[in-house]
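Journal club side-thread
Mid-discussion, someone asked how the predicted structure for our own chain would compare to the paper's figures. Pasting it here so we can look after the session.
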Amino acid sequence: MTDANLAHVFDVTEQNFEADVLNASLDTPVLVDFWATWCGPCKTLGPLLEQLAAEYKGAFRLGKVDVDKNQQLAAMFGIRSVPTVVLVKDGQIADGFAGALPLGELREFLGRHVQPHEGDADEVEEVAAPAETPEAAINRLQQAIAAEPERAELKLELAAALAQAGHSDAAATELDALPANLATDARAVRLRHQLELARALKDAPAQAELEQRVQADPADWTSRDLLGVRLLLGNDPAAGLEQFLAVLEKARDWNDGAAKKRLIAAFATLDDAELVGRYRRRMASLLF
């Protein structure tokens, strides 16, 4: 990438953090990329973030934090894995994510918070790649892995694409084959939980039937559990969490503590921090 394209990219240190990130974010959002030289996924994510910083032409700035050189900053943000990206806006953390997201998801993330400068919006839209289908992503990633088998992070991306296409068993196989450093990556953990929830619905009754069963017998914990999963993976996650809480409250030990496990899996897959926080507190009040 040329020096011109890196005009909106800078290194963040403990010395310049307050001025160049917190104070600067009052005028322009700052995307902070926590990375490390030994991190494979970081080498995939970093160039994509730099590409987007160039495309947005100053609508946001990209600050890069080497966690090994700036351990206090990493600790202050509670960084548990790299890469982790945090968006600072108006002097506060506005959003963030962990793991190396593909370009399309990065564009969606930025689109929720950053507006291109007037006159640049059309250009950003023009360079945006058309939405890639899961099957196309699978084919692309399989070819990339064949060409560069040492890039284990591609296998994590392949597992995600397989899961999105509905190939749960194949996705699980790819996850099981990941090296230890990626097996505990936030994206891998999230994907495992997603697959676990999806597997629970194999051969499960339809939502309407499960609702009828629960209405007829409120203590039908199996139906409540499956109804919770259907609602969670459907369009009403809060209602799904309510089902799990109902089981936890009345039958905490049912099926080896399944309700608690469902809630933990749900929290790992949901993007709504407010919703997760609210239900975490309710779960804690029932457990302690």
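Post-session note: The longest strand covers residues 92-98.
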